[in-house]
Amino acid sequence: MAQNVLAFSEDRELLIQLLGKGKELADSLGGELNALLVGSNISDSGELAQYGSKKTLVADGPGFEHFSVEAYKAAFLKAVEASDPGIILIGATKRGKELAARVAAALDTGCMTECMTLEVDEEGNLVSERLTYAGSTIATEVSRRAPHIVTIPSRAFEAPEPGEGVGEIVTLDVSIPEPRVKVVERREKTKGDVDLEGAPIIVSAGRGFKAKEDLKILEELAEVLGAKVGCSRPISADMGWMDDWIGISGRKVSPKLYLACGISGTIQHAAGIRNSQILVAINEDENANIHEISDYSIVGDLYTVLPALIKALKEKLG
Amino acid sequence: MARIIVLLKDIVDLTEMKVDPETRQPVTEGVKRRISELDKRALETAIQLKESGEGEVIALSMGGSGTRVALLAALAMGADAAYIINDEALAGVDALATSKVLKAAVEKIGDYDLIIGGEMTLDSLSAQVIPRLAELLDLPQVTYVKEIELGEGALRAVRDLEDVDEVVEVDLPAVVAVVREVNEPRIPSLMNIMKAKRKPTEEWDAEAVGLSAEEVKASSSVEILNVMAPKVDRKRIVIKADTVEDAAAQLAEAIVSEGVLER
Ligand SMILES: Cc1cc2nc3c(=O)[nH]c(=O)nc-3n(C[C@H](O)[C@H](O)[C@H](O)COP(=O)(O)OP(=O)(O)OC[C@H]3O[C@@H](n4cnc5c(N)ncnc54)[C@H](O)[C@@H]3O)c2cc1C
Ligand SMILES: Nc1ncnc2c1ncn2[C@@H]1O[C@H](COP(=O)(O)O)[C@@H](O)[C@H]1O
């Protein structure tokens, strides 16, 4: 059965990654790849044809300037009508996930969240692998009814190279419902600019640090090692000492060396560092889980161990 | 007076769940079940809202035979009553089917101002039930909430998104999902734990909320085929030395000889 694929993400980079995977799926199913763009004064809808989008469906209007799940859902349902998808790919940002669930409910169909792999089985069902149990396990799940809806995190699939593709642009006529949730203020956040995902060495801070100033010790270590600095969720989300955190709900890293300082090693944190080649921990509690999942560890006070380690490394590395 | 329904799911205690070394599958049988961590924070949110005004907190859960015991914790924390949907025929259904059942139960409870749940349950990590419920009930949804206040017939909340904190206002009734940063759940006193056993708890099957378990089950379309823990092979060497300097020197040596510093 031929099946079309529809891709959407409000994050352009992620959308292009979805188009790469979407093209592969559409080709194997003999269907068409289409993309949805929602926004205000969209000027670059033509670009998506280069990534394989046959029909780029555009919902453009002042009501779409900021993401509102009800307005975007209305646009999505129009796009579904206009493109008859068997598979719907949505970028697994926070907004994407709430939209996907709401669209799935409206279409009375299933949804698989944050899929890391996607495959169509012999019966035409969609099979995916995704994290479960707070990130400690990988579940293989099957979606048995079309349209299959999945959300896909950043970097699960590679962005394709732009090609010669030609496609058409279809303007959607969406009547936007009166917004029930009123946004009264938007407070921009600073985004950590470090490319943690690509960093070969990461040193990371947890609640073992007592004050923001103390992070200086870790920064000094980072300098000796040529490392980027990361942290656990409380250091960022509760204390506000850094912008981003590492873990299941944050950045997922795969350095050659990950050095965790004053981090207990909960499953949620562990899920983000699992792909590290060598894991090192400094934690004063000998029963902390981080010691169980590390290659090397020191049971000790980071305030004395880190200065000693910096000194020792400086001597070794000259 | 606000009537708040809190959605709670009991899951295996993730800190006690082990992995079978042979099959690498998680062993969930016999492991103590607890209310999923974010759902506890949703409950704490509801209790605080009740305490800041007047109201009632009703815990609602679709679960199994262990749910009644797990929900005692909710009653001890401060929920006034608990409703449980326990129907064997519904075991293993997906988020779509779960939300249909919860919708029916919410409507049976009726007369609510607010429904609060977690961003996601920590076992399934699906993050679907709250928006699905909002769609099925045709209510506004306020997700990723880290701060919330109730006013006269309305709520004001701060939503934690990747690039912004969004301050929003919405009329009640509404459906809310909280994130971890919303609060630290309280630990109930011994006296409240004793009292919890006397609070009303009602158990329903699908029929009691006006649904056919077979139909709901048939609508479930996502199925888990297999769950496995990825292989981790760590050296787990704990460096021991008489002085901190010695330990640090040994660690430095180990790091250098692993060859991970070469660029
Ligand atoms: C839905 C959800 C998602 C989450 N996602 C993430 C995530 O992506 N990433 C994440 O990190 N967390 C996440 N968490 C939070 C997680 O559950 C833990 O709360 C968090 O990882 C703990 O951070 P920590 O290790 O820094 O702090 P703690 O658990 O408090 O550990 C601090 C450690 O420091 C040690 N210590 C204290 N003083 C010293 C000292 N002087 N020297 C050496 N060691 C010392 C202690 O022994 C302790 O082990 C999530 C939680 C939820 C509910
Ligand atoms: N079986 C259930 N019973 C009651 N509430 C649930 C159930 N499953 C999910 N929820 C609620 O919906 C939220 C999101 O769950 P999920 O979509 O499974 O990640 C949870 O944090 C709960 O508040």
What's the short story on this structure?
Chain A is built from 8 helices and 16 strands. Chain A has helices at 12-29, 69-83, 94-106, 215-225, 233-238, 267-273, 289-292, 302-317; strands spanning 4-8, 33-39, 55-60, 85-91, 111-112, 115-120, 126-132, 137-143, 148-152, 168-171, 181-188, 201-205, 228-231, 257-261, 278-283, 296-299. Chain A starts with a strand and ends with a helix.
How would you describe this structure to a colleague?
The complex is a heterodimer of chains A (318) and B (263). Chain A is an alpha/beta fold. Chain A has 8 helices and 16 strands. In chain A, strand 1 (4-8), helix 1 and strand 2 form a beta-alpha-beta unit. The longest helix of chain A is centred in the N-terminal third of the chain and has 18 residues, at 12-29. The termini of chain A are far apart. The model of chain A has no long low-confidence stretch (mean pLDDT 96). Chain B is of the alpha/beta class and 263 residues long. Chain B has one domain (2-219): Rossmann fold (3-Layer(aba) Sandwich). Chain B is 30% helix and 31% strand. Chain B contains 7 helices and 15 strands. Chain B has helices spanning 37-52, 67-77, 95-109, 129-137, 190-196, 213-219, 244-257, and strands at residues 2-7, 10-12, 18-19, 26-27, 33-35, 55-63, 81-86, 114-118, 141-151, 154-160, 164-171, 174-178, 201-204, 222-228, 237-239. In chain B, helix 2 (67-77) packs across helix 5 and helix 3 (95-109) crosses helix 4. Chain B is globular and about 65 Å long. The model of chain B has no long low-confidence stretch (mean pLDDT 96). Classes of the chains: A alpha/beta (318), B alpha/beta (263). Bound molecules: flavin-adenine dinucleotide (FAD) and adenosine monophosphate. The site of adenosine monophosphate has 24 residues of chain B, from helix 1, strand 6, helix 3, strand 8 and helix 4.
